[in-house]
Amino acid sequence: MAKHFINARESIVTEALDGLIACSGGRLARLDGYPEIKVVLRAEWDRSRVAVVSGGGAGHEPAHAGFVGRGMLTAAVSGEIFASPSVAAVLAGIRAVTGPAGCLLIVKNYTGDRLNFGLAAERARAEGLAVEMVIVADDVALPDLAQPRGVAGTLFVHKIAGYMAETGAPLAEVAAAARAAAVDV
User: Fold this and answer.
1) Are 128 and 76 a contacting pair, CB within 8 Å?
2) I need a surface site. Which of 5, 96, 122, 175 has the fewest CB within 10 A?
3) Full-model pTM
4) Which residue range is the domain that position 149 belongs to?
């Protein structure tokens, strides 16, 4: 049987995120509403640039929060173990990092992620925020799936979009580059 360092099942996700933030040297922060809303974001963020946000169910830490940083994600939204983050959590993350340049959501092809990130994007747009969404469906391990899941290839989409955003590219270009990468991973 595998051995794990777990204090309590109820606190696995928050303890993993707390540890990551504590080790970040001040580069990461958590959003107000924590631990119900589990959003890890860059402590210093220039809201004049496109924000790149991703996330999903917990259980494979340090993903997704481990990819928050310069030239990568602006924020990561975590759900509970193998459960998508809530619409409220995703929307809180979008609001926290999105400025005039807009926000790109990078979403793995899981039903809950697509639904909750999609609804949050619609609500953010209704508030006047510019939000685009890219779905990553790169899983080839199960060839009979009608809709492949998004797995490891998502990291390449994070990197490409994060780099484009860091250089000051507009939302349309960041989204186009991310979509092109998502097709090719």
Assistant:
1) no
2) 5
3) 0.93
4) 9-184
Does the residue 3 lie in any domain? Answer: no
For the chain, 185 residues long, give each residue's pLDDT as a single digit of tens. 566 677 887 888 999 999 999 999 999 999 989 888 999 999 999 999 999 999 999 988 888 999 999 999 999 999 999 999 999 999 999 999 999 999 999 999 888 999 999 999 999 999 999 999 999 986 656 666 666 566 778 999 999 999 999 999 999 999 999 999 999 88
Place of tokens 């696995």: 12
The answer to whether residues 137 and 149 touch, using CB atoms and an 8 Å cutoff, is yes
CA dihedral 7, 9, 12, 13 (to 10 degrees): -160
Residue 1: inside a domain: no
